[in-house]
Amino acid sequence: MRQLKPSAIMVFIVLILQALTIEYAWSNETYQKPASLVGAKMEQRADALQLLQSDLFRQELNELVQQSKLGTDDASRDDDKIAIASFLSDFQQTHALIAKQKNPLGYFHYSSDAWLRQASPKTDQYDAQALMTLMTTKLGTFSNEDLYKVSYCLGWSLEMGQDFMLNLFKRLKSSDMLKKSDIVRLVTNYQLYKVYERILGTGNQVLSAENDKRYVIEPNLLIKTKSGVSLSAVVVRPKQDAIKRPAAFQFSIYADEAWHIKTAIHAAAHGYIGVIANTRGKRLSPDDIIPWEKDGEDATQVIDWITQQAWSDGRVAMYGGSYLGFTQWAAAKYMHPALKTIVPYAAANPMTGLPIENNIFITPNYQWAFHVTNNKTMDHSVYADRKYWDDVFENLYKSGRAFRDIDKVEGTPNPWFQKWLKHPDYDSYYQQMLPYKNDYKKINIPVLSITGYFDGGQISAIDFLKQHYQYNPKANHTLLIGPYSHGTAQGVPYSHHSNYQLDPVALEKDTEELTFQWFDYVLFNKPRPALLKDKVNYQLMGSNTWQHHPSLQKLNQEAQTFYLGTTQDQDAYYRLTSSKPSMLSFVAQTVDLADRSTTNNDAGMWPLIHKQLPKSNGLVFVTEPFTETMQLAGSITGHFSIAINKRDVDIGYNFYAISPEGEVVFLNYYIGRASYAHDMSVRKLLTPGKKTQVPIVNARMTAKLLPPGSRLVIVLDVNKNSNAQVNMGTGKDVSDETSADGKEPLEIKWFSDSKLMIPLKPWRLK
């Protein structure tokens, strides 16, 4: 339930609910739900708040904890262990667990609460004066960097916490009984909320006063651009400082004054002028809100404004994640001479991420347009009920209606999404937003891209890198990638992603600290960040090492070639064979696209680790067990050879590793539209019955150490589920197709000369 920065709230904000779906290996023992929860009305935020403040509910939780014998060993994540120790009033263990963390100040809320409750006659409360004294004493002694770390910890919203708890209460209320995993979720999130409820108001009051002593904070600047647009901005600089400094600049659609101040303070703590400007129409801007379209030219004019300020030394470095990664690339299209470097993390691109993935419109984050355009700041309410949106997408899918009817099914007009639906090609609409082809030749500044294997928008970040090198072979572009999600790619990783425990070295990445190290390296000739030893830096899962390579393209070429076998084994699996077939054959698959009682190509990404291969309607292709330790590192390339009875098809696959013991690890997934596989800007329909090659484009990267006896699995399928449009294959605009267009089932032949190059080589520890 940890609250994310606005940049992390962007694409895949639904990951804020990850804690609801983590899988643990507990017994099947179940427990009665608290009576207060059973009898509570759970329809709005106020209902959740009433339960959170109920003494009876607290008493029932205590009884549930005692009955289940809940302890810190019942949790996998350190955050949950700390929350359980705090709930149990085990102050010694709370402090000990916090002390073990790489960033103990990230748990300042828990440690402060523990100190105060230890000193109080009643361990469940403390007085206001004691809280004020503690905060004033502690915060006044912190360095600028430590004060920022505490501000990040205190950058939490009780209202968003109530929304989260409303969702959690709803889910648990609808279940018959509680499992041990449910009790962990309930207790840890309840305790997190109650700790923040006690300390947040006073903590932020003292924090604000302390920051005012150290910085000049200008929260309400309005920049008038040469094109007549007014843009809202926050500027923070060290107090009593006449030194001209470079600006660390973010350009954000996520208007949140408090977060902008925190972010800009962090830049100032590192010796930069912190500048956070909002896109047009946001916060104080009187103009219309326009996502995506004008950000490059507007950001460039803000850069121009920065260089004219008395505190500027004429240099600007941009950084930030998700949508803020997009705005950096949009600005780089114009290459203002003052722009010296960019550091986009988990960078978004509307064509290769959201709302489109490889020319396929997808539903995750459909509500984002409401989130950023409903008001001048952010409308968090649209993300308050994930089940509501899941039901919307499921209803649309099962109805068989045209994808263009999505807002009619939901009931609220979504004009921005409807506008994007009119642009299924990579046409001039997108080309004018971002660097396009030869525009990359002008981008001769150092670039650091950061993303994660489990970042849903990874393909955008890597596509920017590939395009940069394709059109500018001399580009200075560095990549860092590891086992991170969209959120943790932008910040500090957790000990676990789903039920996968990260290697210790993977926890060494702190994205903002790495960013400022990079800025120091580029602008002040300081040492290159230690993690960035080459152009491609990746954490090899399972090896506890970082690996380094001079080129992503060459890394992908260090591959073994596999073909599709056409004979099933006793498990009904086909073979991924390294031998080129001597005779052409195929595997036939029939998919009734009009039948919405079934799905195809559902991703098995959560939980990450499975006891067995998830069931699906796809075709399972598996390698022989490896006879030696192998390194899998890079993206799958190659092509599928297919023939269909229609004019188009959306291809998908799920990629897994199976350990010698049979444990199945989800690695990544892929979807792509055959008619755009050769050129995302021009649709070329297939000829029914004709064999054709469909290239794999923008496949996700992964990296994992595979011990002897391991196998790799691709579950190959046609994409048909509620997460995306269903391509009926008529050749019409897919947004207009309905299930009525699928009277004839799709028949697809997967030919044995399909060529998959998997980046796989024997492991040699250097």
TrEMBL record:
Q: Where is the Xaa-Pro dipeptidyl-peptidase C-terminal domain?
A: 516-749
Q: Which Pfam families does its entry note? A: Peptidase_S15, PepX_C
Q: Which residues form a coiled coil?
A: none
Superkingdom of origin organism = Bacteria
Q: Hydrolase: present as a keyword of the record?
A: yes
Which keywords does this chain's UniProt record carry?
A: Hydrolase
> Has keyword Ligase?
no
Name this protein carries in UniProt: Xaa-Pro dipeptidyl-peptidase C-terminal domain-containing protein
